[in-house]
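Journal club prep, notes for RB
We'll compare a predicted complex against what the paper describes. Inputs for the pyridoxal-5'-phosphate case:
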Amino acid sequence: MYKDSELALLGGQPLREQPFRVEPMVGTREEELVLAAIRECNFSRYIGSPNPSLEQHLRQTSAEAVKLEDYWHFLGGPNVREFASAFAAKIGAPFAIPVNSATSGISVALAAARVSAGDEVIVPAISYTASATAILMFNSIPVFADVDPLTFCLNPDAVEAAITPRTKAILVVHLVGNLANMEALGKIAKKHGLVIIEDAAQAPGAKWKGKYAGTLGDAGIFSFQQSKNIMTGEGGMIVTHNVEIARRARLIINHGEGVMSSEASARDLADIVGFNFRLPELCAAIGIAQLERMDEVNDWRSRNADTLRNGLANIPGIDLPPSLRAESNNEIVDVPHLFVALHNAETMGIDRDLFILALRAEGIPVGTGYARCMYENPLFLKKIAFGEEGSPWSDKAYNVDREYVPGLCPVAESLLYKKFLWFYHIAYPSTEEDMDDIVGAVRKVVDNRQALLKAKDILSAELGAYSQGRIGVDPKQLKTG
Ligand SMILES: Cc1ncc(COP(=O)(O)O)c(C=O)c1O
């Protein structure tokens, strides 16, 4: 159909000139709740811990805490407590603790689970940087393990191989809404006595055999940053079944207040360095309304992902990882955060980065995912997390020569540097017609790849610049608001 059309990269007309729209689904419900909070002067309502029954309150489930007397605000004001209670009910965990970001949520959950200075935490090589840096917050040590080539989540064999006597936890990331193999990871954790924390920032609503992502380990974390499936501007949530983790997390996000009771032992107090990681009331008001839309926004993304999956099937050089839902007979329900296809240079006959350049010229915002494996960030390569002396790796609590070097996780490197094609715009308000444009542009480039190959030398400067400074997406192709 597109054979012999001139590619935009070679001077032809782009298949699409209109930018893709990027905006969260919000409406009158969010407006009403935020306005009500403003009118009631309800912005934080946080009150420290003057209450003698603090310990008892800390142990209440989120559903119980929402019914606390109105003046008692250690666990948050009315919107924060209602959001927590509704989220806990939706996700199927007794405790939900709102926080100001997923990044702080990961640090808090690890510390609440007593993962301490010098303890190793296994984390996948591919994720948003926060998944690894949050581990450093309490001086624990990230250990990177390779990922599965089809789910992009932790490969259980690689996890098993990365375990040392210092390993204390596995930070599982459910990347792009896919689910990690929780059965295999659960068995490994049990065998070695490890804590499992799930980073479900990109997977709210995904399910493993009837249970929601985030409730399959010891604690789960969600992000409500604006780009996420449901959002509060900035924000996050910790969920857990474990009353001790909930209790400690509630203290850590509230300055550690209340822990200084005379009966508390050093072990009770360890890692309870208090911060202010609270979610503001206005954000929680938005969160209540967003949670009501969670299934709708997830269905929106899934519908568009299905359209792309069907449209991109059987295009030479575009490999599609099998759908987790179809493969598992709906036992595993992924919630696509964005759509990932895999470039196959051998079949297509052109390199991935040249293909991306040509597709972008057609007006399609496509990227390679993250710029590099997390261990290839200078923070890890140079071990300069806290000053130039190598802390926390060189600290007394650890003092191990842990190597972070290119080549550590070959599957992750091959995905990031050769295969990933991330299509970002499957969320509301993108429509089926938008997906048709993506498919059309892919076909146009693939149909005319011989012309692209012939012009490869002319394009080499542009290609070099792109490959060097590989970024997620060209901001010019996005329209906000
Ligand atoms: C997998 C993952 N973990 C953690 C985070 C951090 O979330 P936040 O921005 O809420 O701190 C993100 C954000 O993009 C993420 O994608």
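Talking point for the session: The pocket of pyridoxal-5'-phosphate is lined by residues 101-103, 127-128, 130-131, 173, 199, 201-202, 223, 225, 236 (CB under 6 Å).
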